[in-house]
Protein 1
Amino acid sequence: MQNKTLILISSGNRCGKDTTANRLLERISNLGKKALIVPLAEYLKNDVSGLLGVTTDELDILKNNKEVLTIGKRSITTRDFIEEHALKVMKLTNNDYYIHRTMDTIRNTNHEYIIIPDLRYRNEYAYFNNLKNIVHFIDLISNIDNCEDVSLINDLQFDHTFVNKQDDISILNLHIENFITNHIISSN
C-alpha cells in the first residue's frame, strides 16, 4: 500500500460521482501517472447481478430506472434489494466485508492513484481515514435535477468540496483542475 494516494468521493445518488471520478482519472492519466477507479460497490454489484442473472451494466440500468423486482411475494426496488443484500452480507461477515475486498484490489495493483467514487457510510470513512496513505476525501455537492442526496456522512470532515451544477460542467472541471494542480502536480 505504500506510495498510493486514495481519492474518495461522496455524494448522493446520480449527483455526478462517476463523472467526477472519470474526469479525475483522465486528468491524472494525462500527467503520465497510473490511476484506477475502484468502486466500493463493485463486489456488491457482482454478487447481486449474479443472484439476479443480469450483467452489472443491466443492474445499473435497473437500479437507476427505479425498477421494481418481484421476489417471492415481495416487491422491492432494485436499489433497495442491493442495499438489503449488502446489509445481510455485512451482518453475516463483518461491516467491512466489501471494504476488505476492495482493499485486496487496491493492494494488488501497481497504480499510484486510486479513485473510489462511492464513499457512503461511516464505517467506510473511518476505515480510510485510519490508513497511513495519502487520502483525499471529496464532498461532491450537486443541484442536478435527479440527484438524491441520501448521504449518511454529510456531517463528517472532508478535505475538498467540489460543486456539480445542472447544465454547467465548467464549475466541476475547475474544482478538478484546482485539485490536480494543488495535490497531484505540486506533490512531485
Protein 2
Amino acid sequence: MLISSWIMLGWWLANLSGDLFGLIYPQHYIRVRYEDLTRSTAKELRMLLERLVPVAHGNLNGAIACDNRHQLHGNKVRLRHLSAADVRQDLTWRSEMPAKYSKFLLPIGSVLGLRYGYGKRLSVE
C-alpha cells in the first residue's frame, strides 16, 4: 500500500505541476487527455502540431515515429520503433489493481479526475 500511495502522490504532483505551468505560461501549455490521445491519435497529434508548429502542414501517416514512448507504454517498449498507429489505450490497471488499493487510491484520484473532465468518479468497472 505504501508504494501505491507514493505512486498516487507522484501522479498528483505531476498533474498539479503541469497545471501550475499552465497558469504561469498559458501560451505554452496544452492539455491532452490520455484517452483522447489513445482513441484519436492522428487527430490529437495533428491538433498539437498545428498549435505548436503552425507552419508544419502535411500528412501524419508514417511521419510520427519515436523511439522513446516511455510515458505512453513504459520502459519495456522504449526501444521498439513505433508509429502513431501503434498507440493504444492500456486499461490493464482496471483488472490487475488489487481491490484493497482501488478502494483507497481511486477516490483520491477522482478529485483530480473531475478537474480534468472525467464526469464521474474514477472506477475499475
